[in-house]
Structures
1.
Amino acid sequence: PPPLLEPLFPPQPGASPGFAERVRQHKVRLEWVRAEPAGLRGAVRVLNLAYEKAVSVRYTLNRWASCAEVPAAYQPAGPADGLTDRFAFLLPLGPATVAAEPTLEFAVRYRVAGAEYWDNNEGANYRLRGRQRGPPAPGPLQDPDSTAWIHFI
């Protein structure tokens, strides 16, 4: 079975109290992440400082000996607050990649109006650990119809 990516941070920072204030203060914040077979999917919230902006996610599988960066895509059906925009990303990680390199680290970059802002989880980076999916729990095999009742009148 393919390995899972287990976040070493709360996977939905956007659901925590004070999230909107942190976006206003720091200009960019990770909203949520979810491990999928295709890779790591997530969303980023940025303060709407100008029309033109670029959001990307820089990540590594080898403790920053090398890294890659993927752009995040603007989500038009974003927050209705008028102050922030949402961007979505997918880090393309196959099962073999995660199995070979057990730790994924990433940070979010927001470029707008000649400035650059980062969300690197307060200097610790966002880290996920790859772990093998365990075998199914052993249990008695049961006929799916064994609990059905047949009633004759």
2.
Amino acid sequence: MSGGDGKKLVRSPSGLRMVPEHRAARSPFGLDEPPWVPDKECPRCMQCDTKFDFITRKHHCRRCGKCFCDKCCSKKVPLPRMCFVDPVRQCAECALVSQKETEFYDKQLKVLMNGATFFVTLGTSDKSELMVCRLSNNQRYLVLDGDSHYEIEIIQISTVQILTEGFTPGGGNTRAIGMILQYKVPGSEEVTQMKFTAGEDFNCNRKLSASWLAAMHKATKLLYESRDQ
């Protein structure tokens, strides 16, 4: 894994942000700050249509950049995907999304970094290797350690399919038992596939693996959102 993961404090119109010194070192789950809707293009609240005047002030949501009155944009919520140091003002819709993402940053990200053990099969091989899989501390690499060692750059991952069991036609609980991951090898268009299968040796290991896979599923959704920005 490459170095250069230093950070710097910057001030933007939206607030203080702790960002990587180099853009290439940013988290693959991060989002750029949106451009603000210009004040002159926003005579009314974009939610309730209240007209702005000397009493009714306009505020910009830090997540979407749209313009709202204080009533429609009063919540200050953490926004780690944009590296804000403190909670920032967001509209009700964006605040709800950011609050849901907080669980990923507070809980599931730690699960991914702590890692879990899987049987890993590379490509079309019929042999699997027992490996500890974890997300690197800078969130940019999926690290696999066993007799072999792999570091897969998160931005090179093209697809992630979570494998489950326990589904019934009438509904019921499913349990994540593995995943199929495809990624591009840097410097080429070649796509490599890996299959991760949870071991069945200890019940506690199965539970840990299922939690790790659930966190990976959430991480994949955030990754796709960042790419679609």
3.
Amino acid sequence: FNSLNHEMTLPEFKFIWYMEYSHRMWGRAVGLAYILPAAYFWRRGWLSRPLKGCVLALCGLVCFQGLLGWYMVKSGLEEKPDSYDIPRVSQYRLAAHLGSALVLYSASLWTGLSLLLPQHKLPETKQLLRLRQYAHGTTALIFLTALSGAFVAGLDAGLVYNSFPKMGERWIPDDLLAFSPVLRNIFENPTTVQFDHRILGIASITAVTALYLFSRKIPLPRRTRMAVTSLLAVACMQ
């Protein structure tokens, strides 16, 4: 307020404060939703030995996620000498927080579906093995694309260019490698961060489309076909 946002009113500040407060309370509620039922099921003896390990890992991830969130927010509250720029959290910590959340969500969903849905016993053909490997590769690419989005958000890189498919008047912007050493551009140059995110996004939807087309050539259970079709639909919407 003293350095930058002189015109901010108390109701405007309260809106930001309550948004952050609600996020923290929601995170704590998620933690309790994991830990309390897990402790109850454990005490009742309803968990098998492998599931106990899985539950411990998920509860540990929940706690780690909260710790990462605190560490991320802390970076936005640190005084920066001789700088009155808009306060923002570290893009590195933001990406770590988002990545941890994605791992936690995916692991939770995988565990839940493994318990609820019986596993299909399919013949291990060469085509099925290739489909599984390609699906894992596509998953990694989507995860990387999401992490690159955290760098876009952390650096406000989305504000640099707002035209597509070109960036301004060029396919490859002039300031793509403006920082030195070159490796810094990937994580700290807003232009490069936005460019990488665009390329990764296009690569992701291309990979998902290819996965869908390849899956049509293999006899798969109805549930698997629905999953692949839903993946394509969500990728197009995204």
4.
Amino acid sequence: LPTPPARLPYVPQVPPTALLGKVTATTFALERPRCVFDGHADASDAVWLAVAFANASAAFRNPRCRAEVPRYEQLPAARSYMTLETAAAAFSCSAPSSPVLRVGGDTACREQGRQDPCNGPLPSPGPYRVKFLLMGCRGPKAETRWSEPILLRTAVSPSTIEPAPARRGSAVLVIASILASLGAVLATAVLGALGAKVWGSLRPQGLGTDAFIRRSYRTHHIPPALPQPLPPGCGCSPPGLCHSAPQPPAPCQT
């Protein structure tokens, strides 16, 4: 009998941080499970993502080999499929890779005759559950737990969108116009009164127009800021050496 796959405590999840397009009407993002399969995977193993409707995840059965992997085209009938086949080395702790995976991002999956594991757009809001499955030449070797239900966004029907705001009554428009006119008149009066008060306070001090014109002012020139000297050890000349007197030259840090 084949050995049952190891049950890993990792739970897949949508990234909790803000992310553009994290959940759409046909796709969602997942955190990449780094370091999860270390100690279980060999160089020839692959990691798959199993996607199932939330109410069908309990009935999902792991395939015994790659030929039995449920395909994207079987989702409406089988209620589940597997996708995102990736070399296990891409999920190791030392692998430089994107921190997220996108489920449902391959629109070319709808082309006729495609036989490879497809990552096509999800056909409905779901909800869905996902888990990662490590498969080797002899079948499944390790699997994560199922995620919590993931619900996609629902598109808004065009018939529910109001094309234009409701028209206001003519009486409301007349009142609004009158209030706007009164506000403009009041603002003009207040500005005129303030201007007259300021001009009157200047006249008794003997600051007539002629005196005000003949009076000159000397402005203070502000020179441009000069570059500050670099602290010891920051300048490099020739390239590759740092000057730090009285210490001997040392390699530059870039």
